[in-house]
Amino acid sequence: MKTIPVEALNELDAAIELAALAREIARHDKLYHGKDQPEISDADYDALVARNRAIEARFPQLIRADSPSRRVGAAVAEGFAKSRHGEPMLSLDNVFSPEEFSDFCKRIRRFLGLSEDEALAFVGEPKIDGLSINLLYENGLFIKGATRGDGAEGEDVTANLLTIPSLPRNLAPPFPERIEIRGEVFMEKADFLGFRAAQEKAAEAREARRAAGEKLGDSIVIPANPRNAAAGSVRQLDARITATRPLKLLAYAMGAASETPAETHHAFLDELRRWGFAVNPLSRRLDSEDVAEAFQAEMGAGRAGLAYDIDGVVYKLDRIDWQRRLGFVGRAPRWAVAWKFPAEQAVTKLLDIEIQVGRTGALTPRAVMEPVNVGGVVVRHATLHNEEEIARKDVRIGDTVTLQRAGDVIPQILGVVLEKRPAESQPYAFPQACPACGSHAIRDGEDVVRRCTGGLTCPAQTTERLRHFVSRRAMDIEGLGEENIQTLFDAGLVKSPADIFRLHQKREILAGFEGWGERKIGKLLEAIEARRIVALERFIFALGIRRIGEQNAKLLARHYHSLEAWRAGMIAAHIIGSEAREELGSIQGIGPAIAEELIEFFAEPRNLAALDDLAAEVAPLPVEEAGAADSPFAGKTMVFTGTLEQMTRDEAEALAERLGAKVTKSVSKKTDFVVVGADAGSKATKAAELGVKTLSEAEWIELARS
Ligand code: IVH
Do 436 and 498 meet the contact criterion of CB atoms below 8 Å apart? Predict the structure, then answer.
């Protein structure tokens, strides 16, 4: 069809064409996002969008409700649908030595109030490094499967998982009505090598075709290790590709379930086998913690001979009732731990020390080294922590250094090989000024970290804060990665978090950036729009206040419930002796240093202005009462004092939190209950003075269990 110049269109033709364009563009969106099978090139797509916009500019009265230009914020499938886990998928804390493992056991004993002679039985399971997944079964049928994602929500990869031969489609009865099974999808070493060789060959062939001038689709990924290979295979948009990949599945845990299928973890593993899952045959019940060290050594020795890579052993407390009582702290269970094999080491040359400026102004030195292979991973950078660390180890540019890489942590420099030090080398002089803005960089009192004093004027701090703001655990704005933030900042479009939410007014400017097509801009603006409503804890964490990590952000959100209440509380806490300051100080887990940081942050008018500016764009969701809504403790503020007989204080406080209570350290007018154990002191007296309700331990337990 011949296109009529926009100027020559009459109103009727324009209306007809706009309707056609809306339909046409929506169809291409679907092909692109949903099926990953676009029919037209990006340039042709952009031309359609531009035509739509030009017509709308001339006939604004004809802009349709379903116009592509208004579709910012519409939920377009981004490849995979999101899938919320029935129970969060967590990670594990690591230990590296018998001492650390023994400390882990001690913490369990202390929490549960167990004596030394009570044996802790564990199940040891080889820790395979693959991709963890969550599988939902209802009435014995496989319903859906998802990746871990951010722990609360993953990607629905059901179709891909169905291509894995060892995934049971239905469970052998009897089974719980509804149960989530967790396990690891992985590739064996030999399969990985074969797969990688095939990918390399395919990439060569593709290169030849490209050189011959052929137009090609997606490039071919050559995975660096079995983990990446497994993850990439499961996350294919076309399940037929996944089907060609040699994937295996081993099951090892449970998420939400309508009933508990076993009383011990080893019995649960037997159930998994009976239902039809593959369970690692090397998993073993260990009668007491004393056998763990021998098991660890045995697995370490046998590691090289296994068909798959393992990076340690997971130890899980066998008794599930104890697991329940122990619960979780942060993102990891108190009842399980990953005991990692010793870190891999290597020797290489230190080429340079770069200074990075973090969002709180911390100057962090980073080692740039000659690339070296450390246990299968090529390492170029390592952390040097801080100025003191460099001085203590006397690390100099040009030195030969030993470095170590343990698990997925950033590699560390252990020390210098002095025999190889060049004669002319000089001790490293740590910069006294911020490399980004030139402001003085100072060390405050005891602080080992040198910080830039440029504050809000330092561009490095600002961009780091913005990066933190959009990062996955914070506001989670997809498509606003490192590079894009830098581009937007350099162009002067985004200087503060609130600016991100005003980007939609800058479409024209964005369209002028190199490589920023209509589609990319549309997707980005959609991702931003989708984040105008977020959980309060994410919002607080995203602000990037020093010492306010995810855990503390959660505590604050749970305590204050709404942005308004938190803001008011923080401002009022500025006054020494105020009720608000006392309230802040009484929040369990918020120590004086953290409280100080918050008060300081809110005392800075520019911070407050930036916060209010942002609050005009974003609506953080007030926190609903956590835990069992019908518990008498839901939403109540509680204090525990004195010695409890039937459970430890740790356990009592954790239980209260599970029931939706806020546990605080000191008694005030706002306290709802004080649980008074034996030998209670001043807190019990204060409760009586203020007329706060007190409970005996027996009363507390009875109400908690009701
Ligand atoms: S249990 C609450 N068991 O390790 C229990 N995890 O760092 C959490 N993993 O994301 C997981 N083998 O990908 C568990 N036998 C095993 C495991 C295992 C490997 C991975 C898994 C998880 C990560 C936790």
Answer: no
